[in-house]
Each structure stands twice: as C-alpha cells, then as structure tokens.
Design brief:
mainly alpha; 104 residues
Length: 104
C-alpha cells in the first residue's frame, strides 16, 4: 500500500537519524517549507509540497520517490507492458476478449 508522503518522510528521517534541517541541507530544499509541511501534516491539516522537492528529499535519503512511498504501480505497469509485448496478435485478441467478459 502506498504511504502518504508525510508518513514516508517521517519514517525515513527516523531511520536515517536526521533532523529536518540536516535533510534539507543535503537535499537543497527550503527548511522552512519542509518544516511547515511536517508541522501541518502532523496536526492533520491538509498540506502539500511540490514534486521536485519531494524527489530531492527522497534522493537525499537514498530512495526514489516511488520506493519511499512504497508505490509499486510503475513497476507493475512496466511488467504488464513487457508481458503484452511478448504476446502474439491472437493471444492479445484472446486477452482483450477475456477482459471484456467475452469468449470467442
């Protein structure tokens, strides 16, 4: 299951043993922005950060953003595309029909 960014960041900070200022310095992102995001999120207030900063924070912690969020949907889509490309046209037609609930 995919984690919320706040939970993933909090967990990764704990494991790394880093403070927000340490992480922000390593990642090259605004300490004030991340601190506000974390404080608001901890209170249950809807908060967000931009994707570029989220990627930088994840990379500074040694993760891709998908890894940090435990989101495997990109890998699943890649696997599905690889499997689809390995099918011949007849197999693809059968799969399309099965997906539509029909047998031919």
């Amino acid at each position: 299951m995919t984690k919320r960014f706040y939970d993933a960041l909090k967990d990764a900070l704990t494991v790394a043993g880093w403070s927000i200022p340490q992480l922000c310095e390593k990642a090259g992102v605004s300490k004030d922005q991340v601190t506000k995001f974390m404080q608001r999120s901890a209170k249950g207030v809807k908060a967000s950060t931009n994707v570029d900063d989220a990627v930088k924070l994840a990379h500074a912690l040694g993760f891709t953003l998908d890894e940090m969020l435990q989101d495997d949907s990109a890998a699943l889509r890649s696997d599905i595309a690889s499997l689809w490309r390995s099918l011949d046209e007849g197999e693809r037609d059968l799969l399309r029909a099965a997906a539509r609930g029909r047998r031919e």
